[in-house]
Write a structure and sequence with these properties.
about 270 residues; alpha/beta; Ribosomal Protein L4, Chain: A; six-stranded mixed β-sheet; 6 strands; flat
C-alpha cells in the first residue's frame, strides 16, 4: 500500500484554544519545494519594489560652459572646448545612473509554483497553523495580540492569512510590529518566507471546522482571581470609608449649635459742660 504524504497542521480557535489537528489540502501542500523558482520569485519581488530614481547630469545637462575657455592654439595649454566637460571639476558625469525601471517579469505559473513551494517549506518545519474562523465585529488589536501571546508567537514574525478580505482583522494586526495580515489569495512567496509562522483561516484552504468551546489558560485564571479579590478589597475599603464619613457627619449634626454672644453695648460719652 502506498505511503500517505498528507501533511497535518495544528489547529486552534480564534482565541487560541487547541483542537484536533487537520490535514492540509494536497493540491497546495504536496511537500515539494523548488528552490530555483523561489529564488527567482523573491528576487523579482524585491526588484519590483525599487523606484529607480537615481540620476546624475551628463555634460549636456550641466549649466554653463557654452563658451570655449581659451583659444585653440598659442596658449601652451591643452585644448579645451567647455568647462563642463567630464574632465573638469563641476563638469558632467560619464555613464552615471539615470531613472530606470528595475521591474522583472515572472510568469504567472512560476509565481504560483514559488508560492506553493514557500507554503510547503513552512509546512515541513511545522510552522503552519490553522485557525477555525476570524469573526471580528470591530478592529481589536488586543484580541489578536492575546491569541498570538497564548500561542507563544509574540516574539516571532507571524503571517495571518484570512479567507478573503477581512478589514477588521487587517486593522487589528496593523499596529503589531511582527504581524502581517493578508488574504490567502493575495499572498506571495516573499511574504511566506518573511514569516516565521503562517496562521491560515480554515475556510481559506477548504476546511469547515465545527465550533469548539474556548478555555482560558491556567495562568490567566489565577490572574483573574487576583483581580477579583483586589476589586473586592477595594470595594470593602470604600464601604468602610463611606460609613466613617457618614458617622462623622451625623455626629456633627447632633452637636447643638453654639449661641452667638451679642456684642456689649457701647458706653455713651458724656458731653462736657
Amino acid at each position: 500500500m502506498a505511503e500517505s504524504n498528507t501533511i497535518r497542521a495544528a489547529a486552534y480557535t480564534a482565541n487560541g484554544t487547541a483542537r484536533e489537528q487537520v490535514a492540509l489540502p494536497a493540491t497546495v501542500f504536496d511537500g515539494t519545494v523548488n528552490m530555483p523558482v523561489l529564488h527567482q520569485a523573491v528576487k523579482a519581488f524585491l526588484a519590483n519594489r525599487r523606484q529607480g530614481n537615481a540620476m546624475t547630469k551628463t555634460r549636456g545637462l550641466v549649466a554653463g560652459g557654452n563658451q570655449k575657455p581659451w583659444k585653440q592654439k598659442g596658449t601652451g595649454r591643452a585644448r579645451q572646448g567647455s568647462i563642463r566637460a567630464p574632465n573638469w571639476v563641476g563638469g558632467g558625469t560619464v555613464f552615471g545612473p539615470i531613472p530606470r525601471s528595475y521591474a522583472q517579469y515572472v510568469p504567472r505559473q512560476v509565481r504560483a509554483l514559488a508560492r506553493k513551494s514557500a507554503l510547503n517549506a513552512r509546512a515541513r518545519d511545522g510552522a503552519v497553523i490553522v485557525v477555525d474562523r476570524f469573526e471580528y465585529e470591530r478592529p481589536q488589536t488586543s484580541r489578536l495580540a492575546a491569541m498570538l501571546s497564548r500561542l507563544e508567537m509574540s516574539d516571532k514574525k507571524v503571517l495571518v492569512l484570512t479567507d478573503g478580505v477581512k478589514e477588521n482583522v487587517y486593522l487589528s494586526g496593523r499596529n503589531l510590529p511582527n504581524a502581517q495580515v493578508l488574504p490567502f489569495s493575495d499572498v506571495s512567496a516573499y511574504h511566506v518566507l518573511w514569516s516565521d509562522v503562517v496562521v491560515i483561516e480554515a475556510p481559506a484552504i477548504g476546511h469547515v471546522l465545527a465550533p469548539v468551546a474556548d478555555t482560558e489558560p491556567e495562568a490567566k485564571k489565577g490572574e483573574k482571581k487576583k483581580r477579583t479579590n483586589a476589586k473586592a478589597d477595594k470595594s470593602e475599603k470604600r464601604t468602610a470609608a463611606k460609613a466613617d464619613k457618614d458617622k462623622s457627619v451625623k455626629a456633627k449634626a447632633k452637636k447643638p449649635a453654639a449661641k452667638k454672644k451679642s456684642p456689649a453695648p457701647k458706653a455713651k460719652k458724656k458731653k462736657g459742660k
